[in-house]
Amino acid sequence: MRFSIITPTHKRRDSLERAIQSVLAQTYTNWEMVIVNDSPTDPTYQNFVINDPRIHYHKNEINRGVNYSRNYALDHVSTESNWIIFLDDDDYFAPDTLQTFHTLILTHAKQRWFVTNRALKNGTSLTQFGDDEKTYSYMWPYLISKKLKGDATHCIETNLITHNKITFSTMVKQAEEWFFFYQVGLHTDMYYFDHNSTISDGYDTQSGLNFRKQQLDKYYTSLITIFYEIKSKKILSPFVLIYFLLRIIRPIIRL
Questions:
Q1: Largest CA distance in the chain
Q2: Which among 20, 8, 113, 31 has a CA at the least distance from the CA of 80?
Q3: 228 φ, ψ to 5°?
Q4: Please, which residues bridge with residue 217 across strands?
Q5: 73 in helix, strand or coil?
Q6: How far is residue 248's CA from residue 233's CA, in Å, rounded to a whole number?
Q7: Which residues of 78-98 are buried (b: 16+ CB within 10 A; e: fewer)?
Q8: Average pLDDT of the segment spanning 160-179
Q9: Residue 175, CB half-sphere, CA atoms under 13 Å: how many?
């Protein structure tokens, strides 16, 4: 069973090194890591050396955004890949993350999407799900009602992604990750397990979430762009229509 870990990086050479070390330290060793550098002119990456054949390093010719980089990585996982996990360059894995997913996959053979926690170094989980182990639909409890909250660690069957041509938004450079997971959710539910798999320093209020604090005109332009992309891919559903309606209304209510 091979895990493919996808890590886009942008001007974070030092934190990327930490992420790589956390993958090298995994107790489960059948993995590959696909890194895509989206800051090709950043001199700090000049002497970046990979000493492990399981780590594959790519560099965009120009800055294209995290969504392009993740899609590029998806296109470059090996044919032996069984499961996809996304790891941001400023996060890192707990030592038993891959072993935990390996055990879950063997125990719950019919599941195609596993979700565990993203947590702070002090152990506080940023993933707010309900029960310790349970299957959830992505659509209503996560996307719309927000009963399930927070970023998480996702482990998704590779064939589910490739067979259904699931991608991150090609029309928006960053954010809107829900677009990808919405497509996954059209085909399968999430199986949640309470394990702190990805460790995070938390968000930098000066830079980490600025893209979410857009002016209203940019906010709605982004929504229109995503809606057009969903329509062009012919993946409209009642759930996504409700979601868009809520996203249109919420900023107005807050004014």
A1: 53
A2: 31
A3: -65, -40
A4: none
A5: helix
A6: 21
A7: eeebebbbbbbbbbbbbebbb
A8: 96
A9: 13
Pull the structure tokens for residue 208: 């980490």
Alpha helices (H) along the chain:
13-24, 66-75, 97-107, 158-163, 178-185, 216-232, 238-254
Distances (CA, A) of 7 to 4, 42, 87, 101: 10, 17, 5, 18
Run of H or E including 42:
none
Dihedral angle sign, alpha carbons of residues 204, 74, 223, 150: negative
Instruction: Identify the DSSP state of 202.
Output: -
Answer whether residue 131 shows pLDDT above 60.
yes
149 SS3 class: strand
Cβ-based neighbour number of residue 110 at 10 Å: 7
> Would the pTM count as exceeding 0.85?
yes
CB 27, CB 95: distance < 8 Å: yes
The length of the chain in residues reads 255
Q: Which DSSP category does 39 fall into?
A: -
Q: What pLDDT, in 10s, does the model give residues 45-99?
A: 988 888 999 999 999 999 999 999 999 999 999 999 999 999 999 999 999 999 9
pLDDT digits (tens, 9 = 90+) for 176-212: 999 999 999 999 999 999 999 999 998 654 444 444 4
User: Which DSSP category does 53 fall into?
Assistant: T
